[in-house]
Amino acid sequence: MIEAQQLTKRYGEKTAVDRLDFVVKPGTVTGFLGPNGAGKSTTMRMIVGLDAPSSGSVTVNGKRYDRHSAPLQEIGALLEAKSIHPGRSAFDHLMVQAHTHGIPRRRVEEVIEMTGLQAVAKKRAGAFSLGMGQRLGIAAALLGDPATVMLDEPVNGLDPDGVLWIRNLLTGLAEEGRTVFVSSHLMSEMALVADHLIIVGRGRLLADTTVQELVRQYGGDAVTVACDQPARLREVLSGPGVEITGEVGSDHLHVAGLSARAIGLKAAEHGIPLFELSSRTVSLEQAFMELTHDAVEYHGASTVDTPGRAA
User: Fold this and answer.
1) How distant, in Å, are the alpha carbons of 35, 144, 255, 266, 268 from that of 234?
2) Which parts of the chain fold into alpha helices (H)?
3) Beta partners for residue 274, in sequence order
4) Where in the numbering of this chain does the ABC transporter domain appear (predicted)?
5) Residue 92: phi, psi to the nearest 5?
6) pTM, to two decimals
7) How far apart are CA 43 and CA 200, in angstroms?
8) H/E stretch holding 277
9) Model confidence over 14-40: pLDDT tens digits?
């Protein structure tokens, strides 16, 4: 488990991480999301003691990282895949870490096989592609058979087969009861693999929620319905937890809090013919973009400049 309490990091006048409170629980995959510059990498560095908090605290399995006698067995981390001596082979890179922590050679061989590095284990890591470097970084993170695994952008550089592999790896680790904390800019992957989300922007916590709840919050369960009796249909559908919107005079209503099936059944029960009944689908990416819009430091141009328009 990872627990942050009022975790803060300042660099001069800039606050990179601002009083974060969150808990990453075992048995789930927790996605760590945020725009560039949101403070994700700084937070992860503080978790493993590479940066010291300006104030607040963060613990791994109840202790600060540097208080653990065998830290690689508590948390395995991938923060920078290319942090490898380029002249060493993948096998030697892992053996160096194993020797410093009393980890046997057979475990090195296990993680090499687990990450699909058998064919390149004796090759110099400096010649690895980004994808192979990622696999080696993940192998190092798993070396101590840790209770907690923390990976920063683990699918970068992986081909489709590698993406599927890391997806299955993360869910498998969580099913074993481990704590899995992973950052990614690929919302489609987070939607598939994450049970829980921690979202930050400009160093502050924006959401601590599930994928389903976040999508629901931004309209994921809204249904569009059209008929020639919108006022009567509104009356029929109204009830606790149901929100109905629509422009005056329009035959379209937008309903949140009822499924398309429930709306269709109620309309049929009251003899109201429907012209349209469609669920509005909001993706995790759309919900994330809406939530973090005001926390993005650098926005790209949304329109192409045309002659005569001020740049």
Assistant:
1) 39, 59, 9, 11, 14
2) 40-47, 71-74, 90-100, 105-114, 130-142, 160-175, 187-193, 211-217, 230-237, 260-269, 284-292
3) 227
4) 2-227
5) -65, -40
6) 0.80
7) 10
8) strand 274-279
9) 999 999 999 999 999 999 999 999 999
